[in-house]
Amino acid sequence: MKKLIKIGLMGGTFNPIHIGHLVMAEEIRKGFGLDKVLFIPTGNPPHKLIEGQVSSEDRYIMTLLATASNEHFEVSDIETKRIGTSYTVDTIKELKEIYPMAEFYFITGADAILEIETWKNTKELLDSCKFIAATRPGYNMNELKSGIQKLEKKYNRQISSLSIAPIDLSSTDIRKRLKVGKTVKYMIPDSVINYINKKNLYR
Ligand code: ATP
Ligand code: MG
């Protein structure tokens, strides 16, 4: 029997992508022996630009630029090429058809796993693949563990967690810094900074 390839799925708005995302994806890839991590930027709501006047295409391109130097990172346009919001549960279904020989691990930060019950069809979603939650500054390990335990009990699923290097950054912080002209150097890759400057985003 052929071995399944292990693919991490890293969903996010990535508005813009920052080193918190990259560190988390790489630590989880290493820690769980994943073959690759597929970054999946979300689509934009219909007829609307998300905060910062940034299109789905811009977020997709910035994600490509940020991940280009890691041979284990890939970016999917499965959500950005669609008009409107897509739901993770549907995206995973589609990915299973595209990659029949893969085992999927959906990667989230602490904040995202703790609000997973607001996502479409939580039960079906948790049943559809493995989930790994990483620590994030502002959410302590006990808070995360007890939140995960509650979910595991309620949905009868195991959810893994990993304590990772704390990077206290968010895209919201980055957007605020760019708006007032503060530096974001070393917080996001230079290639992404160049793209933001060229397209005059987040001003
Ligand atoms: P925003 O401030 O716009 O919400 P964000 O920094 O939270 O941006 P998202 O695109 O919302 O980034 O997050 C995508 C995923 O990355 C989520 O699962 C989130 O929990 C995780 N994540 C983002 N930043 C960090 C970080 N610094 N440490 C750990 N996980 C993070
Ligand atoms: Mg967020």
From TrEMBL:
EC number: 2.7.7.18
Record key words, sorted: ATP-binding, NAD, Nucleotide-binding, Nucleotidyltransferase, Pyridine nucleotide biosynthesis, Transferase
Catalytic activity reported: nicotinate beta-D-ribonucleotide + ATP + H(+) = deamido-NAD(+) + diphosphate
Uppermost EC category: transferase
Coiled coil, from the record: none
Pathway terms, separated by semicolons: Cofactor biosynthesis; NAD(+) biosynthesis; deamido-NAD(+) from nicotinate D-ribonucleotide: step 1/1
Domain Cytidyltransferase-like residue range list: 9-177
Any one Gene Ontology BP term: NAD+ biosynthetic process
Family: Belongs to the NadD family.
Name of the protein: Probable nicotinate-nucleotide adenylyltransferase
Organism (species): Anaeromonas frigoriresistens
